[in-house]
Design a protein that fits this description.
- This protein folds into two domains: 68 residues, no CATH class; 150 residues, Alpha/beta knot (3-Layer(aba) Sandwich), CATH 3.40.1280.10.
- It is built from six helices and seven strands; from the N terminus they run H-H-E-H-E-E-H-E-E-E-H-E-H.
- It has a seven-stranded parallel β-sheet, sandwiched between helices.
- Helix 3 runs parallel beside helix 6.
- The longest helix has 16 residues.
- It comes from Rhodoluna lacicola.
- InterPro entries: Alpha/beta_knot_MTases, rRNA_Methyltransferase, SpoU_MeTrfase, tRNA_m1G_MTases_N.
- Keywords: Methyltransferase, Transferase.
Length: 220
């Protein structure tokens, strides 16, 4: 199976495991195939951009652990002009542990900005807005669109549903008319300067963090 994820471009990490391997990992001569630890990483070091708790873990073990505790919101992005922001949005979705990222439109997207987080974040593709909307309706997930069109509400004053899809448009044109019409609500991020809009990946990060503030920190 071809690996189409973004290249691992890191210079940090840890070197080879020092001393005897952890008991669960087996030995260099006889690695335990059922261990969450990767014998190649134990032998050569782990320079991936992962949390310290995941050092030396197999990639599939990390994904399984993330799947166990993913948040209940999804992220969707329209991709009609190969928007370079998509990679950054995928990276942010991984950071805020979104359930899944959905690419609407062109299947191909610039993975470089994801900085390999697409290996740990579920990413799906929907060729059209209509197919994406049908998917959301089948799962009873309200579509929360983010744009600054007339009639939208302020995200700072809106109670985001715990289970939902946060939908973002492209840099420049924003959301398509079909996407706005399909949305349960359209929210804007309040701005105070002279520019009309903010970067699409920045808007996505603000919105995901808003969800986290409402559904993670406010529950404590």
């Amino acid at each position: 199976m071809q690996d189409n994820s973004s290249p691992e471009l890191t210079t940090w990490g840890v070197g080879p495991w020092q001393g005897e391997w952890p008991e669960d990992a087996g030995t260099p001569e006889a690695p335990n195939p059922d261990s969450i630890l990767d014998p190649e990483l134990l032998t050569n070091g782990d320079t991936r951009n992962v949390l310290d708790k995941f050092r030396y873990w197999k990639m599939e073990a990390i994904v399984a652990e993330l799947d166990r505790r993913r948040h209940k919101y999804h992220v969707a992005i329209e991709n009609w002009q190969h928007d370079l922001n998509i990679g950054s949005i995928v990276r942010t979705a991984n950071a805020f542990l979104a359930e899944e990222v959905h690419i609407i439109g062109n299947r191909r997207w610039n993975r470089r900005g994801a900085m390999v987080t697409d290996r740990y974040q579920h990413v799906s593709h929907h060729p059209t807005v209509e197919e994406f909307v049908a998917w959301a309706k089948d799962r009873n997930l309200p579509i929360i669109a983010i744009d600054n069109v007339p009639g939208c509400q302020k995200i700072e004053e809106y109670a985001l549903p715990e289970e939902c899809v946060l939908l973002f448009g492209q840099e420049g044109p924003g959301l398509s008319e079909a996407a706005i019409e399909a949305a349960h609500v359209v929210l804007e991020i309040t701005q105070f300067g002279s520019t009309r809009s903010i970067n699409a990946s920045a808007a996505a990060a603000i919105t995901m963090h808003q969800w986290v503030m409402q559904h993670v920190f406010n529950k404590r």
